[in-house]
Specification:
This protein is of the alpha/beta class and about 110 residues long. It has one domain: Rossmann fold, CATH 3.40.50.2300. The protein is about 45% helix and about 20% strand. The protein is built from five helices and five strands. Helix 2 packs parallel to helix 3.
Length: about 110
């Protein structure tokens, strides 16, 4: 079973993603910010991280950078920020894909 870690400070977004992903057969773990996400990654073997950009404590940019220091785990950035500069920054930090809300999760997750 594929383990997906959702890191997003919006509980409604986590709930939506959790519902969809579990329905598609994925195992889901959740964190409300980047610091929790880092701690969870030490305890759980994730196969994919879905990562919001704007979060308290450790934001998505920093978490992506830290992930890339030690892992080639697929990272999908998930944000309402759709400006070209933001997308470029995400890819420069090591994101494998950059999703702008609203989006179609099935297409992106199943492609990984």
């Amino acid at each position: 079973m594929v383990n997906v870690l959702i890191v997003d400070d919006d509980p409604h977004m986590r709930e939506l993603l959790r519902h969809f992903l579990r329905h598609e057969g994925f195992s889901v773990h959740e964190a409300a910010d980047g610091a929790q996400g880092l701690a969870l990654l030490e305890a759980v073997k994730a196969d994919l991280v879905i990562l919001d950009v704007m979060m308290p404590n450790v934001d998505g940019w920093e978490l992506c950078r830290k992930l890339r220091e030690h892992s080639d785990l697929p990272v999908l950035m998930l944000t309402a920020k759709g400006e070209t500069g933001q997308k470029v920054k995400g890819f420069q930090l090591g994101a494998d894909d950059y999703l702008v809300k609203p989006f179609e999760p099935a297409v992106r997750v199943k492609s990984q």
